[in-house]
Amino acid sequence: MPVPETLGPRVALHLLNRAGYGPRPGDLESLLDTGPTKWIEEQLDPGSDPELDTRLAGYTTLGYPTSQVLALYNADNRTVGVILDEFLNAKVVRSVHGRNQLQEVLVDFWFNHFNVFVNDGFDRYSISSYERDAIRPNVFSSFRELLGAATLHPAMLYYLDNYLNTVPRVVSGRTLGGINENHGRELLELHTVGVDAGYTQTDVVEASRCLTGHGIDNIGQTGNYLYRSANHDNNAKQVFGLAVPGGGGESDVQKLLDYLAVHPATARYISKRLAQRFVADDPSEALVSRLADVFLRTNGDLREVTKALFGSAEFWAEAFGAGKPKTGLEFVISTLRAVGANVQIPRTARTAIQDSGMPLYACNPPTGFSNRGADWMNPSAQLYRMNFALDLAAGRVAGVTADVGGLIRSGGGDPGNPSSAAAAINKVVFGRTLSAASLAAAARVTTSGSVSVQARVAGLLLAGPEMQVR
């Protein structure tokens, strides 16, 4: 892996910001000591995280199957609020406190790629299972495994209306059922080959025919996947160059997924999306082509594609660029990590993420949230971010504790002296990469008033331009 042999603070910070949610105090020094190759290898092969497990132990509903969630809801509909609360809280806790940072970033990326909407009926009860059983176990597996798990999970089958997708039948002179194109269209447009691949409306219909019969046993009671052969169109099909013989039944969709998962257009589309998330809003054609080559050569091995991405010259060159603007989630989580925050009650942090325009699991359209950093830069979002940073520095984020004074002292600074405090934060949080302008602005904060000097300085720097990008 052609990663830098020696690692300066700016490059180390870049890696921690792109392959994770940013450093916690001490992470920069640790990375500088161990080197990037070892860190990347460890992140690509995540081990256990006992400390995180302890933090999540109180969230007893995280492992509930959909059938149990539905049973509890049917007995008392208030229980789903508790279950969703724990699910959303766990997202914040994993992101802030998890050791396996790349895994958490990839779970977020792939969930967003195969997006479902938490407030869409049945998905309120199945979304936890969807992330736990379809997305999380497969972020380092093959794209085919991930595609299959996401495509046929009840949450996706409901979200894209495939549970309504059936072969039309004529009963007593009336046509019952019919092809629903939603899932077939998004399978091609968003999940595999991409909208510019050259498929036609006929391909959408034919893909939808392959998906007929794949549904849910009982939406209100058990919520399990179920294939109903009577609802499947068993005639021959032609999808984007793939001939599917008649009589294949349940295997039709497996043949289609096998084909799409390693299609050259899929390799290119997935590679570009990964490069856009981790490298640049407009990644180079050369990088996308190289990643697509790895994708095709390894039959869509996502660990190998990810390794190639972090081994690219383009990835490392971004350490010396203007930076890629953070999403609302990335800003809030990275700010919490920067000050070594202990998140005991994540609700206020969740609100801050929502206020930044990115409510957790609540992107309504199947496109998911934008991977382009530039799309997250707007005045209202910036105001919310600044207020969150100032509140965090002043200890006003409920359910979160952070020792800003101790952070400053650990860097040899005086919490009561603006210039000294700024220099210490620059050292501990930013690896001495802050601009002279940012340091000068922090040094000029007033020392009078009810808000402490350390909170003013830290709040200003945490809301500053260097913290807004990754």
Give a brief description.
The protein is mainly α. Helix content is 53%, strand content 5%.
The residue ranges in which pLDDT falls below 50 over 5 or more consecutive positions are: none
Beta strand %: under 5%
Outline the biggest β-sheet: 2 strands, antiparallel
Q: Give the overall shape.
A: globular
Count of discrete alpha- or pi-helical segments spanning 4 or more residues: 24
Strand tally is 8
Descriptive report:
It is a single chain. The chain is mostly helical. Among the domains are: 160-261, no CATH class; 328-462, no CATH class. It has helices at 9-18, 27-34, 36-44, 50-56, 66-75, 79-97, 101-113, 123-135, 143-151, 154-159, 182-191, 201-210, 251-261, 264-278, 285-297, 302-310, 313-317, 328-338, 347-355, 379-393, 404-410, 418-428, 436-443, 453-462, and strands spanning 169-171, 174-176, 214-216, 225-227, 237-239, 242-244, 342-343, 400-401. It has a two-stranded antiparallel sheet. The radius of gyration is 24 Å and the shape is globular.
